[in-house]
Design a protein that fits this description.
The first copy, chain A, has 282 residues and is α/β, with parallel strands linked by helices. Chain A is 53% helix and 14% strand.
């Protein structure tokens, strides 16, 4: 496939990791970074994640494709502005929520140039130094409301992410946001809340540090995630997240009731039910 | 150090993993397994985790050291019986709760031969096939109420687990159970409850399977743990677990209130608080 000039807006964990892939898979002829955080901009250049940094306006002029990897609240304000300024460039977003964003450009005359994506990959770290080689490979990527995008834009986008090694799944924005609440957003809420629980209850840092096993680290690691990235995700997907959070609290209350009533039989039943996750997560 | 004949009662995840280490580190001259589950007994022999299987009574007669790696409810009923039958053998337990067990043999004439340990290692898998080479290395192990054990028994035990590569921490049983609730037991409860939440809300297994990212897997993996092992742990440590579970539910309710009231400022504050876990878990 013909290489393109690609601008990445937000060269952090996601944008930086994608930049590595776009270069390695020979998809980009030139990688332009747009980054409002000057420390991140400098670091991204040092790490050679992108070839050069530009202002957003210059990047739009000099790129064939503009990829947005910024917090989802900034995405909603920036995407319509970018669509106002483009000619025939393809604009792609990689955000974790989709309904509000797609709604924000629904009637835009350039709507067709925009392709909405959500790669199911991330880590609890952030910034360009968190970018990972080989990220996204063998992971799923969700393409939302593809029929609202121009055919050429969708075709190019699919080819690119297939070349990177991702499985493309198509669904509408509402279904995406619902599933994302279940399989990603709630995990982050529980992890943040667990960290606060332990920090509140366990006053001896040294004890946590010395005793924490892999199990604890595994359930709490997402609590290290970037609040500036996650708060807007939770707010944009608040109805779905609230729905699953309410269910989660009521599930925890079942465990609580078992312990209060010393009902070991029901406790075993709850845990055997939870074991069914094995049929999905090996 | 002189090699000893060691009996392992319960050759599953923990007992099997320890058996591998006892052999590799040249601590055992002979490894005797005691296993009530006949499938596990056969599998443990096939995997050569132990040299032979014996009844508990024969194992007690033929071993210098008896190590218990069975569910904590079985531990409480079996330990006094074993102490009744031993001469000068050392008896070690590796259970995840300590107060009730230590209480159960407090006034036993052979109390001194018993050493109470809890290695801070495990996985969500169980049975002899789950035994892992190199487990325990560079992990912490808690030695409880060491002053109630005979000096020679404590000294031998410390040497063994140091040779295996573990950091030995000493504390009393009450402190152990409290810390264990914070840094291990609550992680299992939240993970079990999260699995039930997602299985309840997400009726499409295929969607979870296709979309689940590493973050979801990380927070939910402990839900695959063995209920027969974990229910007795939660029951024995129910007061501490209830205490931390109540705190966890109230932390989750803070997230819920933020979403309900669209209070992004407080949401950010909660997440920034949770980020402080970074100072402990790198």
């Amino acid at each position: 496939m013909e290489r393109k000039r690609i601008a990445i807006v937000g060269v952090g964990l996601i944008g930086g990791s994608l930049a590595i892939q776009l270069h390695e898979k020979k998809i980009s002829s030139r990688l332009i970074g747009v980054e409002s955080n000057t420390d991140h901009a400098q670091k991204a250049l040092e790490l050679e994640l992108v070839d050069e940094m530009m202002s957003l306006d210059n990047a739009i002029k000099n790129a064939d494709v503009i990829i947005l990897a910024i917090p989802v609240d900034k995405m909603v304000s920036l995407l319509p502005e970018i669509l106002n300024k483009i000619d025939q460039q393809i604009v792609i977003d990689l955000g974790s929520t989709k309904e509000q964003l797609i709604q924000s450009v629904k009637d835009h005359p350039k709507r067709g140039r925009f392709v909405a994506l959500h790669p199911m990959w991330g880590t609890e770290y952030s910034g360009p130094q968190a970018a990972v080689k080989g990220a996204f490979e063998n992971k799923a990527i969700i393409l939302c409301n593809a029929t609202e995008s121009d055919k050429d834009a969708v075709e190019w986008t699919k080819k690119v992410f297939q070349k990177i090694g991702m499985r493309i799944l198509e669904m509408d924005a509402a279904a995406h946001d619902l599933h994302a609440a279940y399989v990603s957003h709630i995990s982050h809420i529980t992890s943040f809340a667990l960290a606060n629980t332990v920090l509140e209850k366990e006053k001896e840092d040294q004890a946590i540090f010395e005793l924490a096993s892999a199990g604890f680290e595994s359930t709490v690691r997402l609590a290290k995630s970037n609040p500036a990235m996650w708060a807007p995700i939770f707010m944009q997907n608040r109805e779905n997240v609230l729905d699953v959070l309410n269910e989660h609290i009521s599930q925890l209350k079942k465990f609580k009731a078992c312990l209060e009533k010393e009902n070991e039989e029901y406790l075993l039943e709850l845990m055997q039910g939870a074991n069914k996750i094995k049929r999905i997560i090996k």
